[in-house]
Amino acid sequence: MSKAKKGVYAAAITSIGADGEPDLKRLVNYCRGLIAAGCDGVAPLGTTGEAAALPFLFRQRVPEALAAAGIAPDAVILGAGSPSLGDAIAIGKASLAAGYSNLLVLPPYYTKEPSDEGLYDYYSRIIEALGDSRLHLYLYHIPQVTMVPISHALVARLRDKFGRIIAGIKDSSGNFDSAKSYVGPEDFDVYPSTEAVLTAGLAAGCAGVISGSTNISAALARDVLRASGAEREALQARLTDFRQTIQKFPLIPAVKQVHAWRTGDSGWLRMLPPLRGLSAEQTASLRREMERLGQIGDARDAA
């Protein structure tokens, strides 16, 4: 089982069927499309994928479905975090059984202000229960949502105990200085959550990005990675403009709306409560901005 390759990952959105249930087949096909569109990999079952609202049994079935579709293990970082230790372990076991060793694990976010000792116990119990030296566990720092930050002291203690199994961290704090502060050992991969800092992050030693908006900007992000010099600077400016624009809207419904426009499939607008779609005013504004940025009708998008 390979560690996740470095580069641009999309925190994949999840298709919700007309019956209100998540659609496993469409999620898998969508992940394949994201890679074809330019992503180095996908991060399904994360925040943008509405994972906290998804049924546990659905989450448990995703790894096997990804494997059946032939998606490479080093192109997947699978969301496995849960307030329930047992659920996180069960999802981890399903992932490892399907050949996917890269797990993105939120802290147990229902319990507020846990001690670092408690968080150390949580992550240690997951690793010990999985009992697989091939595991690559990525910590997930998104304190504005979880209210549970991942401290540097906790990272150091887990690394001291488990070594390379603690493979990296996704920093979704929205603070680039925070993300850079985790950069250290070469085998500890740091992923900011915005492609607006893709070039600067790579220069600072980050491994790439894991972003909700690369569901839309995958092709442009790929072009940034391939370019150099003045061309890269110009492409990064376009990529930054895109990210700064789309993040003015509620991100999940905005990403789903753009994908629905691109595919002509309004089914992508469905979300799990309490999330709701954009207002008419927001939808009109988003369309104007995406047309300005050339992001509507892009045939390179995932289908």
From TrEMBL:
Drop me one GO molecular function for this one.
Answer: 4-hydroxy-tetrahydrodipicolinate synthase activity
Q: Does the keyword Lyase apply?
A: yes
What does the entry list as the binding residues for pyruvate? T48, I210
Q: Which UniProt keywords apply?
A: Lyase
User: InterPro entries recorded for this chain?
Assistant: Aldolase_TIM, DapA-like
Instruction: Please name the catalytic residues of this protein.
Output: Y140, K170
Any one Pfam family here would be DHDPS
Q: Which Gene3D superfamilies match?
A: Aldolase class I
Q: Which family does it belong to?
A: Belongs to the DapA family.
Q: What is this protein called?
A: Dihydrodipicolinate synthase family protein
Give the source species.
Answer: Bradyrhizobium commune
